[in-house]
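Supplementary Methods S3. Complex input for the copper (II) ion-bound model.
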Amino acid sequence: MTNALNRRHFFAGAAATAVAAASVSRVALAAIPEAVQQTSADTAAPWTPPGVTGAGRPYNPVVTLNGWTLPWRMKDGVKEFHLVAEPVVREMAPGFLVNMWGYNGQSPGPTIEVVEGDRVRLYVTNRLPEHTTIHWHGQRLPNGMDGVGGLNQPQIPVGKTFVYEFTARRPGTFMYHPHADEMTQMAMGMMGFWVTHPKQKHPLIEDVQRDYCFLLNAFDVEPGSRTPQVNTMLDQNIWAWNSRVFPGITPLVARLGERVRVRVGNLTMTNHPIHIHGIEFEVTGTDGGPTPRGSRWPEVTTDVAVGQMRQLEFIADEPGDWAMHCHKSHHTMGAMGHGVPTMIGVDHSGLVKPMQRAVPDYMVMGERGMADMGEMQMELPANTFPMMTGTGPYGPIEMGGMFTTLKVRAEQKTGDYSDPGVYKMPPGTQARLVETGSAPTATRPAPAATSTTTPPTSATVRKPAGGHQH
Ligand SMILES: [Cu+2]
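Predicted complex, serialized as structure tokens:
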């Protein structure tokens, strides 16, 4: 707004007035912009900058799943942001609270959204109990702004504020995270998204009507506890998108026929094959920039490896409530899915009563599979995220973790991100129970003559000599 004000004075032709206005605004503005805080884990409405759109044309702002975009202020032609690294309490799902470290009240931190060519100044205040830095993953910038503590800059001490400044030189999908005690700080939830929109029509960047973004992250929160174990390398039990787990993850909403972009970054310690039902998408960009058209092919699952970012784009041309999830089945499970012995096929009859005399809490789990866990109202330690949760219109969805839905509706208004509710299927278009008793017997051709002379299948397994016994 400052810019618009100055420009108006300038075009009025009164140079003296312009100088006066500039000096007044410099005095009126505090040295460091306000650190805007967010208290809610709900998905915030897309943030449209007031008055000006920076260096570029108007853009369609991104929507951060269960997150928000950090407002900036314009000062002397520079977009100024203020990030505060601090302990936060994140609601990962309704009623499930985890002590994390994050930025400006939440983990992940707010999304930084700018336009190619923008000059950006980012103040970072450290309210953590230890030093930190911020690395701006994927950005072209001066070496001294890259944020690797010890290599590019001194660490930001506790209680101090550092300032980073550079030009957002290339459009695309980026993220930010500490490059100081990374194992701890990222395991505690410190990370955020960054989107740079192109300043003019870019040959490899389509205009989209919906632009979603989220980070993949993972935590190890022991059932009944509230603080993640930071030394866990791979056996995390909470698999999250933007520090939220299903059913706490907002659905992605689109109007029928809209072009949708989903930007995903991975800051866990393992890869995540992201799968969307109902449509085919293309990977149109990475954290290295937009992909050449010749390199794009249709997919329904794409792997997002550790430290990578992917832009998925599709036309939302099939109405419905489509599942969207990580395809690693353990990553759509909550905390109780690990370290439980497989009980499938084990007959517990006659065992429960004697066991309960010795162990009053003993209960049978999973002798027919684990689906019971989705329905069971088992008593869990306080503040424990159950293994499977979330109920759809037809019963438990048996998912928890990296799972949400893509809701495509003909009647959804342009720019309306509200949840349209449950999809009403046209009659006759849903899988249904058939009464097999009354179904006509299928006729099948007689088996070929040779098969009747073949003896029943049998095989002798011989282990190679010297093989290990398992
Ligand atoms: Cu996964």
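The first helix runs from residue 2 to 11. The pocket of copper (II) ion is lined by residues 239, 272, 326, 328, 331, 402 (CB under 6 Å).
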